[in-house]
Amino acid sequence: MEISLNSAWSLYENCKWEVAQRKFQEAIDKQPQITEDHLGLGMVLRDLGKVDKAIESFERAIALKPNWLLVYSYLADAQQKNQDNTITRLIEVLIEQGRLSRELISQGLLSKAIFKAHQSHKAELLKNCLEKKLLGIILPTQKKSGTQYIIHNLAKGLGVSFSWADVDSLSFLQFGNILKSEIKEQVLRGNVVGSHIQPNRFNLLLLNLYVERLIVNVRDPRPATLSLLHHLNKHYRSFPYYYILHIKNGSIVKNYLELDFKAQVDYMIETKIPYFVKWICGWLEAKVSLEFYPIIMFTRHEDLAKDSNTFFKSILDFYEIDFSLFTMPQPPELGKSNFRKGSVNEWREVFTLEQREKATSLIPQDLFDRFEWVK
C-alpha cells in the first residue's frame, strides 16, 4: 500500500481525520473496488467514534478481499462488545487457507483443530529457532509498565528488530487493543513484538495459532494509574487534537483538562483502575485455561525498577536465549521512552488517604497475593 504525501493516508497519519475521511470517500466514489480505501475510511471513522459506519467500511473491504486477514483485526477492534461473528468468519478464512482443519471443525471439534494448528506451528517455530538461534519474543504489556523501555532494549540488546502487534487504535485509554493478523510473520522473523492487547477471544485465537510462549508484563494498578494521569496531562497539552479525538470517541470525560488535580486523580482511580484489573485478570485466566496453549510467564514492573539486569535475564531464560547474545541496556533516562520516574511508591505520597483507600479497594486480594503488591 503506497502512501503519497498528498494522499488520504498521509492526512490520516497526520491526524487530519475529517479531511482524510472526505478524501477516502472521494477516492471510493471514483474507484469503489480499491480495498485499501475502504479500510482507510473505516479506520478514520472508527477513530472519530463513528463505529457503526466504520464497521460498514470494513465489511465492504472484506467483501472485496475476503482473505485479507488484517481487515478482520480492524473489524474485531470496532466490534469490541460482540466479536463472535467476526471470529466465526475469521475461522472460515483460516479453513480456506488450510490453517485450520475443516474436518475437525465440521465435527464440532474447534478446540482440537486449534490445538493441532498450534502444534504444527510450534514445530515450525522450533525449526526456525534452530536456524536463526532466536525465537520471536511476544510481550503483551500493561499500559504504563515500562513498555517502550522493555521492547526497545530487548530488541537492541539482541540485535533484532522490534515491532508493534496492535492495530493502530488511537483510543489508548482502553484495553481494547486487537492483535494484527500478521503476528506469525513477526514471530518467524525473530522480532521483539510489543503490544497492549487484551486477552479476548479474537486475540487468544491468533496467539493459539502462531505463538509458542509469551511474556505478560504487569504493574500495580495504583502507580500505573498515577503514571497514566501524568502521561495524559502532558500528551493532551502537547497534542490537543488527541484530547479532542478522545472526547469524541468517549475515551475521556469531556471536561477532563478543566478538572483540578485532585478531581483528575478521583476520575482516573474510578475509571482506569478497573481496566488495569480486568486486563491482568484476563491474562491470569488465559494462563490456566485448558484451551489456551502458549506458555505464559508474568513479569513485574516492580522487578524492572529494582534490578533491570535480573529482569531481562529472566526473559532470556524463559525464551532459552543464550545470555552471551544479549547486551544489557543502560538504566532508563528521564524523559525518554515515556519514562517519567518509574517510582513504585509515589502514589502513596500523591493520593489522599481517601484516594489510597479507594484505589486499594478496587484491586482484588488475589492480585495482591499473586504479585506481592503491598496494600
Write a structural description.
- The structure is a single chain.
- The chain has 375 residues and is mostly helical.
- It has 2 domains: 8-98, Tetratricopeptide repeat domain (Serine Threonine Protein Phosphatase 5, Tetratricopeptide repeat, Alpha Horseshoe); 123-224 and 237-371, Rossmann fold, CATH 3.40.50.
- The chain is built from 19 helices and 5 strands.
- The protein has helices at residues 8-13, 17-30, 35-47, 51-64, 69-78, 84-96, 102-106, 110-132, 147-158, 183-188, 201-210, 221-238, 240-248, 261-288, 301-306, 308-318, 346-350, 353-361, 365-371; strands spanning 137-140, 162-164, 192-195, 213-218, 295-300.
- Helix 8 crosses helix 11 and helix 12 (221-238) crosses helix 14.
- It starts with 7 loop residues before the first helix and ends with a helix.
CATH topology of the largest domain: Rossmann fold
Based on Cα principal axes, name the global outline.
Answer: globular
Query: Based on the structure, what is the oligomeric state of the protein chains?
Result: single chain
Helix content: 55-70%
Largest sheet: 3 strands, parallel
Structural class estimated from helices and strands:
mainly alpha
Number of domains: 2
| End-to-end Cα distance | 50 Å
Rounded mean pLDDT score:
84
Fraction in beta strands: 5-15%
Low-confidence stretches: 1-6
Give me the count of strands: 5
Radius of gyration, in Å, reads: 21 Å
CATH class of the largest domain: Alpha Beta
Identify the CATH architecture of the largest domain.
3-Layer(aba) Sandwich
Output the helix-strand order. HHHHHHHHEHEHEHEHHHEHHHHH
Output the strand order for the largest sheet. 1-3-2
